[in-house]
Each structure stands twice: as C-alpha cells, then as structure tokens.
Amino acid sequence: MEGPASCQLINNSLQQWVQTVEGGLSKLPPDRRDLLRTIARGIASRLRSGQPVHLAFLCTHNSRRSQFAQVAATLAAYWNGLEDLKVSSAGTEITACHPNVIASLQRAGFEVPCRDRGTNPTYEVRYAKDVPPVELYSKSLGDLSGPSAPVVALFCCDDAHEACPVLPWSADRYQLSYTDPKFADGSDRETTAYDMCRDLIASEMFFLMQAIAEAIGDTEHPGPAGRRAGEHQ
Q: Which end of the chain, N or C, is less surrounded by CB atoms within 10 Å?
C-alpha cells in the first residue's frame, strides 16, 4: 500500500522506512495478527457508528515502548486515512522520553526537535508536511482521565497491565507487551535493540490501522491485514 495521494511524508528517508515496514506485515506471527484483528474489529465498530476513538498506549514509565507506539500509531493512522483516531501514551509514573528513542526515530527519518528541555523534555516528532507533529513527553495515567472519546487502552508492558486492574475511563483494554530495549542501554547492542523495537511496534501499528481501515470500508482487496492467520502471499 502506497498510502493515499494526500499523504506528504516529510522526507524520502521516512518514506522508504514506511515502505520497508509495510513490506514486512505478512511476516507477523499468526497469533499477533489474530490479536491485532480483534482489536481492529472493536475500534472499527465504534468508528462506523460515528464515534471518535482514543487509543492510549500505556507502560510503566512512558519512556520507551509506549512512546514508540504513540508515534507509529499516529503515522499509521494518517497513512490509512483514519482521521477520527486520537493517539496518546502514558505511564503509571512520569519519567522522561528516553534519548535512545529519539535517536532511533531520527534514524528512521522522523524530524525530532526538542521544544522544551528539562527533566521531562517535550519533543516534536514531525512526520508529514500537512499535519501537526506528535508531542512526546512522559505523562501519567491521570493525564488521560475524563477523555471525551471512548478509550482503547493498549498495554505495552506486563507491569503496567498488572498495576492497572481498573481504568474507569477505558472502554476496552488489550495487552500487547513488547520487550523493553532498556536491557541494551550503554552496550554495543543499543542501536540494534532500539531499532528492532521501533520496527516491530511500527509493523504491528501499520497492520492494526490497515485492518481498521479495511473493516470500516474497503474489504474487496485486502492486504496483509485482511488475510487469516494461516494465509501467505
């Protein structure tokens, strides 16, 4: 899928990265594809009824995986024309978006200037010419209280899922859980670990958004997201 003609990504490097991510969607494991389709059906049902939907990616520190997910899901929603999706992230405690996440996003082609420095800096992740940037900084669950749209809570780590048995503002909740690239901090595996985490999360977010778009409307020519778990190209 090349994305709608109206999509104007910010540079060729990011365009190439998106194409690489999309090229690997059919390689996602069957169980993950089934989980993502389940999530997509629930979101699509709400969108078809005219409701906007708020996707909240939750992690313990809101510093690595949930930040990757917020950026990837925002870009994938834009790429698939899902304008009624709001995407955010938060943690059970506030820390900061890790510098290794920012460096990894820059390697993919995102432009990521720092707007406000300090112990919890605010970064602006720019990915397209015609939309506002994604604001990245560490947030708490309290920042998500009382949203106007139904919230689908997507947990990026097991600890946050266990620490939040009840989210009164959440319409649905799903556990995704990704390996924390923190294990590689300060080692010669750092770049590889962060880029692998970034690319895996991006692949799943592009699969999810494509599945939502197909469930809402055009299902005549399904791409990788439309195939059942056992099917191959």
A: C
Q: 12-218 is classed in which CATH architecture?
A: 3-Layer(aba) Sandwich (3.40)
119-164 pLDDT tens trace: 999 999 999 998 999 999 999 988 876 556 678 999 998 775 566 6
Strand partners, 58: 90, 155
Q: Which amino acid is it at 47?
A: L
Q: Is the pTM of this model over 0.70?
A: yes
How many other CB atoms are found less than 10 A from the CB of residue 110?
25
Which contacts qualify for 119-128: CB closer than 8 Å, 24 or more apart?
120/94, 120/95, 120/96, 121/96, 121/97, 123/97, 125/71, 126/10, 127/9, 127/10, 127/14, 127/71, 127/74, 127/75, 127/78, 128/7, 128/8, 128/9, 128/10, 128/75, 128/78
Find residue 56's DSSP bridge partners: 88, 153
3-state secondary structure the chain: CCCCCCCCECCHHHHHHHHHHHHCHHHCCHHHHHHHHHHHHHHHHHHHCCCCEEEEEEECCCCCHHHHHHHHHHHHHHHCCCCCEEEEEEECCCCCCCHHHHHHHHHHCCECCEEECCCCCEEEEECECCCCCEEECCCEHHHHCCCCCCEEEEECCHHHHHHCCCCCCEEEEEECCCCCHHHHCCCCCHHHHHHHHHHHHHHHHHHHHHHHHHHHCCCCCCCHHHCCCCCCC
